[in-house]
Amino acid sequence: MSQNSIVLVVSVTIFNNDKVLIIKENKPKAVGKWNFPSGRIEYGEDILYSARREVKEETGLDVKLTGTTGVYNFISGTNDQVIMFHFTGEVTGGSVNLEEDEITGYKWIRLKDLLTYEDEDLREHGAIRQIIDNLLDGNSHSIKMYNEQLPTKWELSE
To answer: Contacts by 148-155 with C-beta closer than 8 Å and gap 24+?
Structure first.
């Protein structure tokens, strides 16, 4: 197996009362697959900022990050090594406005109901199932374990 690259990704489970938001993707290799809002961390970008940005871009919602279920490491369907930082959050503003080219639908669903989905219906089902198990088992950690990105030497000199 050849390694294409290492990809850093953020993912967010957004809670609203007893339900979570899932999105239906329209990305290559993930057409019609359900996922939590997620995406790549851009070069130089703070991880926490990246998580909020990805949610806003894909869903139109503003979120406050409230915790983390941890870091997940897997080989993706495109043969990339993915290191995914997963967070939990709650809506603080905005309204659902999907990124139409990449997202074709959404649902608010009870977390335990995601267990009934078939593997082929979920993007990177192994990681999603680990996240669901961690959330259902209460294995979430404080968001404080992540430190905000330090300013660069150029920002300090301004």
So the answer is: 148/46, 148/48, 149/45, 149/46, 149/47, 149/49, 152/44
Residue segments in the chain with a per-residue pLDDT below the cut of 70: 1-3, 150-158
Q: Which residue has the tokens 């290559």?
A: 28
Q: Place domain 6-157 in its CATH homologous superfamily.
A: Nucleoside Triphosphate Pyrophosphohydrolase (3.90.79.10)
In degrees, to the nearest 5, what angle opens at C-alpha 78 toward C-alphas 75 and 81? 30
Cα–Cα separations (whole angstroms), residue 61 to 39, 93, 150: 15, 6, 26
Task: Write the Ramachandran bin of 75: left for phi over 0, alpha for psi from -120 to 50, otherwise beta.
Answer: beta
Taking only the tens place, the pLDDT of each residue in 69-103 is 999 999 988 889 999 999 999 999 999 999 888 99
CA 156/CA 158 separation, integer angstroms? 6
Annotated domain spans of the chain: 6-157
Query: Tens digit of pLDDT for each residue in 51-62?
Result: 999 999 999 999
